[in-house]
Amino acid sequence: MTAFFALTTSLLWGLADFGGGLLTRRAPALTVVVVSQGMAAVVLGVIVLATGGWSEAGPRLWFAFAAGLVGPVALFSFYKALALGPMGVVSPLATLSVAVPVGVGLFLGERPGLLQVAGIAVAVSGVVLAGGPQLRGAPVQRRTVLLTLVSAGGFGTVFALITEASTTVTGLFLALFVQRLTSVATGGAALWLSVRKGTPALPPGGFDRSMLPALGFVGLADVAANGTYSVAAQHGPVTVAAVLASLYPVVTALAARGFLSERLRAVQAAGAGLALVGTLLLATG
Fold it and tell me: CA-CA distance, 251 to 127, in Å (whole number)?
């Protein structure tokens, strides 16, 4: 069950990143984040009302609130790093986010077996290579590296926090709703400040309503991924769930290959293969 839900998380996050990347070519990244997360929050609110999730309110929701604060900071840092530096450096470096939940799992006493340790090493190496690491070229600014490390730490922290936010299915819906409301409020405030400084919130031609279905998909895929990761981490070792969930860059690369006909570089193809081998080791270990 852990492997299934964690791999589902990778699929959803990978597709959400791919869709979000396409949308940011047509609209400001901050606007894409706020609108997509706002649409997800509306859907979650309806689900919470329908399932009576409010009855699950308790101290654990503070974890969801914290995840909602950290998430936008991580996402904004990631987009800023991509704007300043080459993706061949930023993308592989951002996969260090897996170190946070794995470290938490080890701290709490989890001890993966030898086969799982090998799977973790192979899978993480595969994900880094699948990002197409840039080994040559101009030196990267320290600010770019710092922003990427901030985003990696933030994403990993969200991994750890959302796991602790609920223990039941209805409680998970409520936790995800609180997380999204917090994210929208935080992102909305950042967008407002950005507009005050003169940065446009809409593309030059105005908002294209045909983008709404794609925005809704990105927001719902992201929130669904948070949910499936929480289930995976609660039903199995966090160390295994976190690594399998971190395979989403492979999904993004394959989506670009399938939908945009982008050719995978040799290093990316090798990384995807290693990630698959690592997945098999973790699932069977």
Answer: 10
Please state, in angstroms and as integers, the Cα–Cα distance from residue 139 to each residue in 11, 84, 136, 142, 166, following that order. 33, 12, 9, 9, 44
**CB under 8 Å to 22, separation ≥6 — which residues?**
214
Asked whether 44 and 223 are in contact (CB, 8 A), the reply is yes
* Six-digit token string for 220: 């719902």
The tens digit of pLDDT for each residue in 208-227 reads 888 899 999 999 998 999 89
Rg (C-alpha) for the chain, rounded Å, is 18
* CA 244/CA 236 separation, integer angstroms: 12
Query: Residue 13: how many CA atoms within 13 Å on its side-chain side?
Result: 23
DSSP class of 141 = P
What SS3 state is found at 253?
A: helix
- Please provide the distance, in angstroms rounded to a whole number, between the alpha carbons at the two ends of the chain: 13
Q: For 109-132, how does the pLDDT look when each residue is reduced to its tens digit (9 = 90+)? A: 877 777 777 877 887 787 667 656
Q: What is the phi/psi pair of residue 149, to 5°?
A: -65, -35
Positive or negative, the CA dihedral 47, 51, 56, 60 is negative
Residues in the chain: 285
Of 232, 181, 236, 157, nearest to 53 by C-alpha is: 181
Q: Does residue 253 or residue 191 have the better pLDDT? A: 191
Rounded Cα distance, 37 and 183, in Å: 7
3-class secondary-structure state, position 152: helix
Phi, psi of 167 (to 5 degrees): -125, -5
The tokens of 103 are what? Answer: 């470290």
